[in-house]
Amino acid sequence: MAHVCKVFSRRLSTSTAVRSAIKHVTVIGGGLMGSGIAQVAAATGHDVIMVDQTDDILAKSKAAIQKSLGRVAKKKYADDGEAQASFVGEVMSRISTNTDAVAACGKTDLVVEAIVENLDVKRRLFTALDAAAEEHTIFASNTSSLPIKDIASATKRQDRFGGLHFFNPVPMMKLVEVVKIPETSNETFERLVNLGKAMEKTTVECKDTPGFIVNRLLVPYMMEAVRMLERGDASARDIDTAMKLGAGYPMGPFELADYVGLDTTKFIMDGWSQKYPDIEIFRKSDLLNKLVAEGKFGRKTGEGFYKYDKK
Ligand SMILES: CCCCCCCC(=O)CC(=O)SCCNC(=O)CCNC(=O)[C@H](O)C(C)(C)COP(=O)(O)OP(=O)(O)OC[C@H]1O[C@@H](n2cnc3c(N)ncnc32)[C@H](O)[C@@H]1OP(=O)(O)O
Ligand SMILES: NC(=O)C1=CN([C@@H]2O[C@H](COP(=O)(O)OP(=O)(O)OC[C@H]3O[C@@H](n4cnc5c(N)ncnc54)[C@H](O)[C@@H]3O)[C@@H](O)[C@H]2O)C=CC1
Which parts of the sequence belong to the 3-hydroxyacyl-CoA dehydrogenase NAD binding domain (predicted)? Predict the structure, then answer.
């Protein structure tokens, strides 16, 4: 056991060496992204509070984190069950939960928001948090598609506001886009970049342009795949196979859309089609809208473009 603890604390001290000034992180939203962000922040030595709307949701988020940590631990401590359990236990002990976002951000260095992709809901949340958080607390949004400035302007701390855009699944994807608005101070930006590094991610700097870097390229690609399917040019399965074997993508566009969530994909498309009515590729998709109306959100509900076994 002592050996295990030594191995684990050595691993932690490596991340501590590049640890930013941010030690305590509050993650709002315990869904796909929030639970991943909370997991990786805790696994790299940060104390974390994860917030969601109900205790039930939070219990599911913690179970998802525990499962994902188990997969990470298996790789990290191959044949050592005790070391695996110790790793999972240590990381889990750094994550507490709360259903009250305002209370959870009273004493924290950073709030990372990962709630539903809706501007009004995000703005309302941040206005409430702004009044409760300490002066030094930095706010960040994990939004996929909304302008950071439109969210930040709901607060009086735009100099301490930025975008921290993680990728799904957060424990596996190595990138974080760090987004600056003109008001973001250099110190805030530096602390966000340092946090990304402390979380063992590669960071890239982005201006607050639609979709930042990855989604500005990924969303048109994925929507063109949906148009191909709607036109009957090829089946979803063949388009996915073609992009995996012909372009080297780990998932085809339909597998990826189901993985991201068709509800989130629709939120992004609704926002962009309203904002950019003249851009053909952002036009709403009848097929996507139909699937979402039928409650087929992808993997999370057991069906999207494909059907999945419910685990
Ligand atoms: C139209 C608008 C839409 C726009 C949406 C925008 C959304 C955004 O804002 C931005 C985004 O995040 S876009 C999504 C970006 N993510 C991707 O592109 C993921 C692509 N897929 C992959 O990389 C792999 O399939 C993946 C890594 C996921 C899984 O790998 P495999 O396919 O090989 O499957 P597995 O065999 O299950 O896993 C391989 C290894 O990875 C480990 N692993 C997977 N998931 C994990 C998780 N959640 N937690 C911990 N470990 C995990 C797994 O253990 C396995 O490792 P080995 O033991 O070595 O095999
Ligand atoms: N799904 C993906 O692949 C990616 C999503 N994003 C972005 O991350 C954010 C979250 O997306 P997901 O995690 O996929 O969504 P999700 O639907 O899995 O999770 C959202 C969570 O937020 C909670 N929530 C909603 N309103 C709340 C509030 N006012 N207070 C506290 N909790 C609240 C919900 O109960 C839910 O558990 C969105 O802005 C999305 O665009 C960013 C990168 C990738």
Answer: 24-209
